Amino acid sequence: MSLHRVDERRLREVALTPEEYRVIVEELKRAPNEVELGMLGVLWSEHCSYKSSKALLRRLPSSSPAVLQGPGENAGAVNIGEGWAAVFKIESHNHPSAIEPYQGAATGVGGIIRDVIAMGARPIALLDSLRFGPLPGSSHHVEGVVAGIGGYGNCIGIPTVGGEVYFDDCYTNNPLVNAMCVGLVRVDRLMRARAEGTGNSLMLVGADTGRDGIHGASFASVELDETSSDRRPAVQVGNPFLEKCLLEACMDLAHTDAVVAIQDLGAAGLTSSVAECAGRVAGAGAHIDVRRVPRRERGMSPYHVMLSESQERMLIVVQRGREAEVEALFQAWDLTSAVIGHVTDDGHLTVVNGKDEVARLPVSLLTDGAPLRRLIGVAAEQPPGLDIDALPPLVDPGATLLRLLASPNLSSRRGIFRRYDHMVGDATVIPPGGDAAMLRVKGTRLGLAVTTDCNSRYCHLDPHLGAQLAVAEAARNIVATGAQPLAVTDCLNFANPDRPEVYWEMEETVAGLAHACRAFELPIVSGNVSLYNDSSGESAIYPTPVVGMVGLISDYDRRLAAGFRAEGDFVLLVGSSHNDLGGSEYLKVEHDLVAGRPPALDLARERAVYRLILAAAENRLLRSAHDCAEGGMLVALAECCLLGGIGVRCPAIRPESPIRLDAAFFGESPSRFIVSLASRAMPELQSLARRHHVEISLLGLAGGESVEFEGQFRLSLAEMRQAWEGAVV
Amino acid sequence: MKFGVVVFPGTWSDRDCGWVIDQVLGAELQYLWHKDADLKGCDCIILPGGFAYGDYLRTGAIARFAPVMEKIGNFADRGGLVWGICNGFQILCEAGLLPGALLRNASLEFRCQWTNLVVERTDLPFTSQCSEREVIHVPISHGEGNYFADPATLSRLEQRGQVVFRYCDATGHVTNSANPNGSVHNIAGIVNARGNVLGMMPHPERCSEIELGGTDGLKLFRSVAASAMKVLVS
Amino acid sequence: MIARVIVTPKPVVNDPQGITVKQGLATLGFSEVSDVRVGKYIEMRLEAGSEHEARERVEAMCKQLLANHVIEDYRFDIETDGHKRR
Amino acid sequence: MIARVIVTPKPVVNDPQGITVKQGLATLGFSEVSDVRVGKYIEMRLEAGSEHEARERVEAMCKQLLANHVIEDYRFDIETDGHKRR
Ligand SMILES: Nc1ncnc2c1ncn2[C@@H]1O[C@H](COP(=O)(O)OP(=O)(O)O)[C@@H](O)[C@H]1O
Ligand SMILES: [Mg+2]
Prior knowledge:
CATH architecture of chain B: 3-Layer(aba) Sandwich
Number of helices of chain B: 5
Helix content of chain C: 25-40%
Structural class of chain C: alpha+beta
Oligomer: heterotetramer
Order of helices and strands of chain B: EHEEHEHEEEEHEEEH
Distance between the termini of chain C: 9 Å
Bound molecules: adenosine-5'-diphosphate, magnesium ion
CATH class of chain B: Alpha Beta
Number of strands of chain B: 11
Shape of chain C: elongated
Strand content of chain C: 25-35%
Low-confidence stretches of chain C: none
Distance between the termini of chain B: 16 Å
Structural class of chain B: alpha/beta
CATH architecture of chain C: 2-Layer Sandwich
Mean pLDDT of chain C: 91
CATH class of chain C: Alpha Beta
CATH superfamily of chain C: Phosphoribosylformylglycinamidine synthase subunit PurS
Largest sheet of chain B: 9 strands, mixed
CATH topology of chain B: Rossmann fold
CATH superfamily of chain B: Class I glutamine amidotransferase (GATase) domain
């Protein structure tokens, strides 16, 4: 077939390759017109089509008896009992946040909330997983992003209860902003965004459509370069107030059975929402008239209308003849709604402008037509090894502890989360600051624990192991609250996958995630992929597979927090320590090294430790629990003291050879917790530990105003707090 | 005892207040829509927290023109109990039902945290269950809670004992470091001269159950429930 | 017509935003700035029979909604050309 | 000297505040208003050798701090009388 002539520049503008263009012409048996080309361009962008990652994602486990909805819908859903489903998803807004930190982050939050609403669920919590270049250079980004997340979440009235913040050189030009939303819906009210029923109406509700964000999806699918700032008009401005009204109106839709489906408008706007909705039903198509789309601006072409990424809009599939009922529900919230078309059975998305047809494309070509990219992974160069014997011995553990507490990667996040309303909803029974946060399910005794985790330094040193450790850390944070890990959502942030070592990282990461999730019997029910996080090919980010996890406790009265609760309690280390200094924060802060292998993870041991902690929590043996993560045992212990306002007295630690003192204090061996309990509960815990084959050791006694290891060091809580709370903003 | 909880577009503490009234206190609950022209026989009207109309332009600026506000003004004039919490306080100031205004926090940052409040009036229908100069533990969550009144208004407020809550430290001392937002005289809540309209920035509905970290807020709801019986709305 | 309204914090009201902007400018090396006040700017397109009428309407808008007289002052101008240009 | 800076959302950028204020005005009976944009107003007192110099400095301040050029436009004027009056 002769290739239809098309301007190369035009192709680049819509981010299609000549090869992809050839496939389009072949499938259509004609050249696409301008509007069609634009529509295909956005839907075939990496962001929407997953053409570089789809094959890999199929390897992730996605089922368990609790799963009500796995990947493929706007968000995943799991059954949590008593008739309730938890709905959740994580999503990236990295590129927009790099360009405009406040609005990029804010609209990221707005977008993920709409995904949860589309499932019919009421959003009950937000989490944010953030990565920046080192402070103070990145403070402009940090300030903007934190303000943007708070600005949206606080205004809309959904508590932001958790997240994480890391600083590393690799994020200097590519900050990462991932947002997760969790919602609740009655199981029998769970919606799916399927355009069922030929003749049913398609209604567009919420904000008027403007020219904002055209080509946003393609924008997220290319590397940032010097010209990126010229594309800045692509950045949208969020309106959380409008989304709050939209949220309430969508909740009111439950009062009518006239609604068939709800679909949010995100990347690629109307084009993708209509195509996706139709694409989920075999043979379905849609007919829409751009003239009926309410506009914010004059002079918009059909192309603009179809590709606009204006925020705070939803597509509603409504039973024919019942549009007025739905319109009235939105009208009550002063929201505009418009019937813009209807569902067809011709498998095509037809777009008209009044009488003129402006586009007609097979739905399957839009949603599934993008040729998958065959990428090749080649193992990256081995990162520098670590000769542990060459490290100078630890001299002053107290001084090191203070420096670690003040390290921006370990310091208190209070300066950030106090800018987020984390209480609205009257459901936050474990606030941010410890391990996972917990939300009660009102009207029941159920508690949902939620967390996001990823140590990307580990992933850089060994992506396969790093991904497993991310799953394990998330699960450990859930378990530390006494909740059972239930399901996962993941956000895979990578550099340019066309580079073989990056694609290799992706392969390894996905394999690691799959391996750990299978071992813990955790389904991955939703997720997102963000690629091209490298500016101009340099300064690629570390592989950063952020794991969002949800856990369940049957009675939140049995929940555990991280801080010590009572003087005189026994303080124990659960699990065993090894010479795990590879990739540690200790190495970075004290020796300026990013080297070695991340700590080895024994998945069976890790599970055994979970079982022990959960059994002990179930039997109310524990007064507090906190996992050991970055900074190792001593930082975890210090956090228990600072969070509880109670010190600890311990005999000196004299590890048996070959375990080193620095590793005992600051090594990051996984599968460990610090717990406290009343002395009388000790025998029972000991027998429980024996039964689960988990090592426990007495560290000391809670009490006093300092952390003391006899003869080794002593620090007052006050000086520790000053170091810990002084670091991040 | 019937509580009316007003819902504007953008309000979000309505459901939390409703939860406390209905599920914790066990009192009668009536949501009032901003377009309602009738208070439906409520004995105490709560203007809850949130971002009514997005708080665009100024907090409470647009909300105060909602149809329900006119009725609430009349109700207050007749001695009815009106209780503005957070955004509700901002709306009451905008509407002129309480003096002063709420500016951006001195830090220019939103703050969600626990605060201590010293209760300076216990003879009010809102605080009768508190003891004299009791220190209560109540969270705040706002970006614009920095209370301001011109010097004349301020001295009038102080002279007439209209300051009900002040930010203080755990021992009840009113200090600079205990002031989370820069409010003049550490003011966290005020009442009108007649004592039937209360505005406060902190959120009592967020601390009415022990699992949420404290129950001091419930004292205020209980006070209203107890004393409403005595207030005669003429 | 076009109305341009400027709303500023009253002099007695302390303006933390202005102070912060001033500090921010100083950090960037603009230490010649001795005082900053931050207010709002509102631009409106409106229909009116005459400039006089527009002036009265905008005055009413400012009084009722656009400014809070406890903490803010306002001033505005009306551009009638804008109307003609359309 | 006194610099008066006006920062407005760019015309193509969504202005939720303006939209909401317009609706608010309509509810109050000011339905003659067809469009509202809300921006910032910044008034600064500063020292400068000449108006020209002041202009350059304020321009730099706008670029670096006062306006976010991704979504905002700015304009300003300089009043030298202000200086003389002091
Ligand atoms: N890393 C991943 N793991 C599992 N599922 C994923 C992952 N990335 C994307 N998905 C799933 O693929 C589908 C499409 O994702 P996305 O385009 O981000 O959703 P949306 O259109 O709602 O923004 C969703 O159902 C999502 O949950
Ligand atoms: Mg933890």
